[in-house]
């Protein structure tokens, strides 16, 4: 008898096919987020359920007494959408997909940094609207990226990959905040300077990029008070999780030009976006594209597959969260 596996969303075809060779796989053919009742049913009916960041899994959804499921193979590195304490209490194993989306997510952070600095999205809108009147010495002037200072809040894999692109590619100076100092070889390679607190880093940077996990501990880390510590010429980049930034505070800071711009890939309550952002020209908005390359999404699926294979073979799991 094949193990029963449920994917809450459609995955790249090559990975779905590999899973189907090994397991009795059910796909969410509509490719839409599941309701809590549908997710609970999946926990009752399948040996493994594979959620994504779109599945909000609080304790009440995970609390299914007669469940068959033993493992949640999360398709993604972040797992703040899963109540990990509740999953543990329910005896569920949780795995994730670290390492394989580092470069693609750092690429999107750099894309947003460049778009925000050089007013890329605004320029595109202007051209499409037929409003461009031709080259002019003072038209759409913007900020230099080369040689500017980049501050990273969180200095894990993705932040370090971004720092490499920024430092080696654009000669940017790198500063970071992290509870403990980064490895000496990384510090030496990037000439990275550590700040003890977010408050000391913010006034020193031309660009600030967020790379901390989401969840209660970092909710609204970038609030009104901290946004006011940024330079008026600075830009905020968020490819981490939407709730790390207080949207209302950011909208006011951008509207009042207390900071120059922002580049966002993630949002509080996504896919709903605060209409306040849509009315602003100095914010670049992407639809959570961090890991959205064919190779990365395929590698993420392969990671889930490797974890499931290890679990069903009774081996150690390569990416066990709990
Ligand atoms: C993750 O892996 O956590 C991303 O946000 C989804 O690409």
From TrEMBL:
GO MF entries: glyoxylate reductase (NADPH) activity; hydroxypyruvate reductase [NAD(P)H] activity; NAD binding
CDD domains: GDH
Domain D-isomer specific 2-hydroxyacid dehydrogenase catalytic intervals: 13-321
One Pfam family of this chain: 2-Hacid_dh_C
InterPro entries reported for this sequence: D-isomer_2-hydroxyacid_DH, D-isomer_2_OHA_DH_cat_dom, D-isomer_DH_CS, D-isomer_DH_NAD-bd, NAD(P)-bd_dom_sf
Recorded GO CC terms: cytosol
PROSITE patterns referenced in this protein's UniProt entry, alphabetically: D_2_HYDROXYACID_DH_2
Keywords, sorted A to Z: NAD, Oxidoreductase
Family: Belongs to the D-isomer specific 2-hydroxyacid dehydrogenase family.
Name the UniProt record assigns to this protein: Glyoxylate reductase
Lineage: Bacteria, Pseudomonadati, Pseudomonadota, Gammaproteobacteria, Methylococcales
């Amino acid at each position: 008898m094949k193990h029963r596996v449920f994917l809450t969303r459609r995955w790249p075809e090559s990975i779905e096919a590999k899973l189907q060779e090994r397991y009795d796989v059910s796909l969410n053919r509509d490719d839409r987020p599941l309701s809590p009742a549908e997710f609970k049913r999946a926990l009752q009916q399948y040996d493994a359920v594979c959620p994504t960041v779109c599945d909000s899994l609080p304790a009440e959804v995970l609390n299914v007494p007669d469940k068959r499921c033993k493992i949640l193979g999360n398709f993604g590195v972040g797992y703040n959408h899963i109540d990990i304490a509740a999953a543990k209490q329910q005896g569920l194993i949780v795995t994730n997909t670290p390492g394989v989306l580092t470069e693609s997510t750092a690429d999107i952070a750099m894309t947003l940094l460049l778009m925000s600095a050089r007013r890329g999205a605004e320029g595109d809108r202007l051209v499409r609207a037929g409003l461009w009147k031709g080259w002019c010495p003072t038209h759409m002037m913007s900020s230099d990226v080369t040689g500017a200072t980049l501050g990273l809040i969180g200095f894990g894999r993705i932040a370090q990959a971004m720092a490499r692109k920024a430092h080696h590619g654009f000669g940017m100076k790198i500063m970071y905040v992290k509870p403990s100092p980064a490895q000496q070889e990384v510090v030496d390679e990037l000439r990275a300077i550590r700040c003890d607190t977010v408050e000391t880093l913010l006034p020193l940077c031309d660009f600030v990029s967020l790379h901390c996990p989401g969840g209660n501990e970092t909710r609204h880390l970038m609030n009104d008070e901290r946004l006011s510590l940024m330079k008026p010429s600075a830009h905020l980049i968020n490819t981490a999780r939407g709730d790390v930034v207080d949207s209302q505070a950011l909208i006011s800071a951008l509207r009042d030009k207390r900071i120059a711009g922002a580049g966002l890939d993630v949002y509080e309550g996504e896919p709903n976006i605060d209409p306040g952002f849509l009315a602003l020209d100095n914010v670049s908005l992407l639809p959570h594209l961090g890991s959205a390359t064919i190779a990365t999404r395929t590698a993420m699926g392969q990671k889930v597959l490797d974890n499931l294979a290890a679990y069903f073979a009774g081996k150690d799991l390569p990416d066990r969260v709990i």
